[in-house]
Write the C-alpha cells for this entry.
Amino acid sequence: MKRYVVLTLTAAAALALDTALFAVHNLGGVRPWLLLAVALAACARLNVQSGIVTALLGGLAIDAICNSYLGLSAACCLVSVSALWLLIRKNHPKAPLLMLLAAAAALLPAPIEWLYAYLGGAQYGGWRTFLTVVLPNAALTGVCVLPIGALFKWAKQDRRDRI
Amino acid sequence: MRKLWKNRPLWIAAVLFALCIVLAAFTIGDRRVSYTDGLFRSAALPVQEKLYAAEEAVRGFFLRMFYPSALEEENARLKEQINEQAKQLAFFEDTARENARLTELLNFTDANPSLRFVTAAVIGKGTNPYTDTLTLNVGTRHGVSEKMAVITADGVIGRVSEIGPTWCRVRTLANDDMRISVTVQRTRDEGMYGGLVTLPDGSLGGKLYYLPDGADIQVGDVIVTSGLDEVFPKGLLIGTVVALDEGTGVYDAIVQWSADYDHLEEVLVLAPTESAS
C-alpha cells in the first residue's frame, strides 16, 4: 500500500513541477520530463502495471492542463514505459545501466511528437533540435529516474527488511 | 512470437497507446471546449494559480540566497525610482485626466465606437513551443469572449481561443495555426501573417505572405494589423521584417514579433463595446 501512496505523491509532485516550473523556466527548452521519469522508475522498481497507469493518467493530466493534443503525452509515456519493460523485463538493473536504458527509452517520444507537430502544420528544427533539446531532455530524464527509483525501492521494502 | 503474445502488460500498453494516438489525432484541429473539459479547467484553475505562485516563491527564495548583493543594489535603485516616479505621478495624473477627456471627445465623434480593455494576468503558459498558448485569469464573467484580441503596449499577443467562466486561453502569434491580415506600414501593401519559421539566431519568427506582386518589402519594415479580419483593430503592431524570401517562394518575408513573449505578466484583452458587438 505504501508504495502506491509514494508513487501517487511523487507523480503529483512531478506533474506540478512539469506544468508549473519547467514549462516556464527551462534552459532553451532543455528540461527533464519528470512525469516520464516517475513512470519509468515505477516500471523498473515497482512493476510494469504501475508504470503503465502512471504514464496513462499522468500523460492525460499534462495534456489537459497544458492544452496540448489530448492523449499525446500519455501515448509518449506509454511507449517509453513499454520499451523499458521490454529491455529489463524482470531483471533489476543497477543504477548506471538503468539510467542509460531510461534515457534511451525517453528518446522514443521524439518521433511521435515530431509526427504530431508535422501533422499540426508546425516546422521542426530537425537535427539541431534533436541534438540541443531532445537528447539533453532524454539524458536529464534518465538521470532523474535514479533518485525516484531509489525512493520506490525504499517504499517497496518490507519494514522488517529495513530493520 | 508466442512468448511475445504472452506479454499481457505489453499488449495492454499497446492498446492504450493506440487509443491515446487516436484521441490525440482527433484533437489536432481546433479544439472546442466541451462541458466536461470546461468543468475540469475551471476546477484546475485555482490549483494552477497556486502552483504558479509557489513556483515564483521558490524562484525568489533561490534568487535571494544566491544573489543577495544584487538584490540589495536593485532594492536601492528601485527606491530611488519610486521617489522619482512619485514626483512624476502628479504630472501624469493631470495628463491622464486630460487624455481621458480628449478620448471621450474622440470617441463621441468617431464613426467606430471605442474599444474596451479588460486587464488580465498571465497565470499559465503552454509547454509545447509549436502550439504556444497563454492562460489568463479572465473569462466570460469578465466580459471576455472567443476571438477577442489580446495585446500589450509592445504589440499584438494573440487572440482568445478557448474560454471558461473565470479563465481563457490565448493562441499567440508564436502559434503555428495563427493567421492575421496585416499591412506593411511604409507601403500600405496588404498581406497575411501566419506560420512559424526559425530565425537565423535560432529563435522563432513568423511568415509574411500573399503580398501583391512587385511589392516593395524591405528589412526593417514595420508590420501592423490591417483590420480586415475583424478580430484585430487596424494599426496594431505585429513586428518588423528581419529577412526576405531567398527564392524559396514559400513566403515573402520573415517577421520578428515586437512583443516579448518570455516576460509576459499582464496583458489587455480588447473587447468591442456593446454597440460595436
Chain B touches chain A through 47 residues (CB under 8 Å). Confidence is low (pLDDT under 50) at residues 104-109, 273-277 of chain B.
